[in-house]
Design goal:
alpha/beta; Arc Repressor Mutant, subunit A; 15 strands; D-Maltodextrin-Binding Protein, domain 2; five-stranded mixed β-sheet; about 300 residues; about 40% helix
């Protein structure tokens, strides 16, 4: 029995839903595909598929085996790609997941330059602020801005710390006065990021150590670019990363406040399955992101 061909036939039947559809996909006859799956079942000693005259369904053992078999074929494909890429120009697809604001402002333009440098690598970028499972959702790499979470299933590759500041417009400070005490955040209008699990409580570190402040939230949004624009308009004090506020801090449209207090440290880091590390296109992308963002980024030129 050609076990690789049998695995491929079984996976196709599961994904296409029938022997006939699988046969069309692989360019074989229905009976050839059926024989391959039967041989696999005989070799394993378990029934993988339930067959009726109308439909094919997967048994519990078949579901478990399908997940493992799909992973094996994916790893084999990565190994083959790494060998091909070692002797040729880097090729293949890279599916990337990244947060929305960082993706539109910085990662997107960087990936355009990456694609121009390596025209045979196809980039598929999906922007989403929700945390996803990179393996289950089929991504080769996930870009995250948060505190790294150690996991044995993924490689965790830190690029740089991400600074966050509290800032407001000069017009806001002229109208409301500049805050001089952390307790001022409980009375002054504040702009709150809606995805923070802490609600309207800002966790900061000051001269006397960590402190949590219940702020006077007057405007809430799950997009920091909207909060930036609201801060520029004088609506309140915002806590945001400098990769969003940096250009406005450089031009003076925003100014930092309560500089002795800093939000909890977060990082720009990459997550990818260990199997992807074999592919030279992944190594090239990691090196490129280090090259682009690894030193002091231009958005941090203003303290």
């Amino acid at each position: 029995m050609d076990k690789l061909a049998s695995l491929q036939s079984f996976i196709r039947v599961v994904e296409d839903g029938s022997f006939a559809a699988a046969a069309r996909t692989v360019g074989q006859s229905r009976s050839q595909v059926n024989r391959a799956v039967v041989a696999l079942e005989d070799d394993l000693g378990v029934q993988l598929l339930n067959r009726t005259t109308r439909q094919v369904s997967v048994t519990p053992s078949g579901k478990a085996f399908y997940q493992r078999a799909k992973g094996i074929l994916a790893d084999l494909g990565e190994a083959e790609d790494s060998i091909r890429e070692s002797r040729d120009r880097p090729t293949g697809d890279i599916r990337i997941n990244a947060p929305m604001s960082f993706g539109t402002l910085h990662l997107g333009p960087a990936l355009v330059d990456f694609a121009k440098r390596y025209p045979d690598i196809r980039v598929d970028l999906k922007l989403d602020d929700h945390f996803i499972d990179p393996v289950a959702d089929g991504f080769d790499m996930t870009v995250r801005i948060s505190r790294p979470a150690e996991t044995l299933a993924l490689i965790d590759h830190e690029i740089i710390p991400i600074r966050r500041v509290m800032c407001a417009s000069p017009e806001f400070i002229k109208t409301h006065g500049e805050p001089t005490d952390i307790r001022d955040l409980a009375r002054l209008p504040c702009l709150h990021y809606g995805n923070l699990l802490s609600g309207s409580s800002w966790k900061l570190t000051g001269p006397d150590g960590p402190v949590a402040v219940q702020v006077n939230g007057v405007f809430c949004c799950n997009n920091a670019e909207v909060l930036r624009d609201a801060a520029i308009a004088g609506l309140g004090i915002a806590e945001m990363p400098t990769f969003i506020a940096g250009p406005e801090l450089q031009t003076g449209r925003l100014v930092t406040v309560l500089c002795d207090y800093v939000p909890a440290e977060i990082f720009l880091y990459l997550l990818y399955p260990p199997s992807r590390q074999l592919a030279s296109r992944i190594r090239l992308l990691v090196e490129f992101i280090h090259e682009r963002f690894g030193d002091q980024p231009r958005w941090d030129l203003v303290q």
